[in-house]
Specification:
Layout (H helix, E strand, L loop, with lengths): L5 E8 L2 H11 L3 E8 L2 E10 L8 E6 L12 E9 L2 H13 L8 E3 L2 E7 L5 E6 L25 E9 L3 H10 L3 E6 L8 E5 L8 E6 L13 E8 L2 H13 L8 E2 L3 E7 L5 E9 L18 H4 L2 H6 L12
Parallel strand pairs: 1-4, 5-8, 9-12, 13-16
Antiparallel strand pairs: 1-13, 2-3, 3-4, 5-9, 6-7, 7-8, 10-11, 11-12, 14-15, 15-16
Pfam families: Glyoxalase
GO molecular function: dioxygenase activity
Keywords: Dioxygenase, Oxidoreductase
């Protein structure tokens, strides 16, 4: 068994409408699924990705309308990376972020790659990372109808950073339980110790976790702009069953197998309290919608379909149909 890389990252927004505007009109990602939180259908769950929502390209958001401010800190997923094809693309993005008055730190370098850290309108901590010299998990393909030129478009998810008070327990779960291996270190100007890099599968930007140890920080208080969980890619359901056996054998409390309709999942928390998900690559987002119309209407898994009228009545209207096709 070997995890194939990052599957998706799920975060929190307070306003679906503003979130949709930022991630589609400004970042140029495609909304591939407009659905609801299956555990609480009163809130939207929006999936932004590449042209068809390939595994490893999904950045998702739960709309929690009363979500307060995030107070960053420990025991958290403290940034999410978005891949672009080249250093040239990063220069394009630096100009585009300036054009939209978006907070960013300017281009820099992490682990031998050019990066551009920035924040969305709610303080979501994001980093654009260049695949100029990347070798490893393949990227996705930007949507041809995106407002961003295809050669500069976002191609998927890059490394996630975990911030924890101590290294050993999280490192053990990543390596001994999940099969990641240590890939190197780089300087962390914000902390006293170097950033630790772990990778899985084919490696590269689509398969890395960066671990930051910050014992001096207080625990993060999540809210709008915080990350809820990170999911890692599993080939299929049969392999996911084996992962459940391993996670249970390690005495890590877990959700058991959960059918999310577009993929199957297993959730558990590592000892520093960060929520991990293992998710299958399929069946995919075209299970209930045609590729050309992904994300235009509210999609519900079969077990919620009979409650559609009630669910839609409790949601604020969100117009997502593509006007310029």
């Amino acid at each position: 068994m070997e995890l194939k890389g990052i599957h998706h990252v799920s975060a929190i927004t307070a306003t679906a409408k503003d979130n949709f505007h930022f991630y589609t009109d400004i970042l140029g990602m495609r909304l591939v699924k407009k659905t609801v939180n299956q555990d609480d259908p009163s809130m939207y769950h929006l999936f932004y990705a590449d042209e068809i929502g390939r595994p490893g390209t999904d950045l998702t958001f739960f709309e929690i309308t009363n979500a307060g401010h995030t107070y960053p800190g420990n025991n958290s997923i403290s940034y999410t990376s978005l891949r672009v094809a080249s250093d040239e693309a990063l220069r394009f993005w630096e100009e585009r972020l300036d054009e939209y008055d978006i907070v960013h730190d300017g281009m820099g370098e992490k682990f031998g790659r050019k990066v551009l850290p920035f924040q969305d309108h709610e303080g979501q901590r994001l980093v654009l990372v260049s695949d100029e010299n990347n070798k490893g998990v393949n990227a996705g393909i930007p949507w041809e109808h995106s407002p961003v030129p295809k050669k500069y478009g976002i191609t998927g998810l890059g490394p996630v950073r975990l911030t924890v008070p101590e290294l050993a327990t999280t490192e053990r779960v990543l390596t001994d339980v999940l099969g990641f291996h240590h890939a190197g270190t780089y300087s962390n100007p914000e902390g006293e110790t170097d950033m630790q890099v772990f990778e899985t599968g084919e490696g590269g930007t689509g398969a890395e976790v960066h671990l930051e140890v910050r014992p001096e920080l207080q625990k993060e208080r999540p809210g709008r702009g915080s990350v809820h969980h990170v999911a890692f890619r599993v080939a299929d359901y049969q392999e996911l069953e084996k992962w459940q056996e391993r996670i249970t054998r390690e005495r890590l409390p877990n959700s058991g197998l959960v059918d999310r309709y577009y993929f199957q999942s297993l959730y558990f928390r590592e000892p520093n309290g960060i929520l991990f998900e293992l998710a299958t690559d399929g069946p995919g987002f075209d299970t209930d919608e045609k590729i050309e119309h992904l994300g235009e209407n509210i999609a519900l898994p079969p077990f919620l379909e009979e409650k559609r009228n009630e669910i839609e009545a409790n949601l604020h209207p969100l117009e997502t149909a593509q006007k310029d096709r």
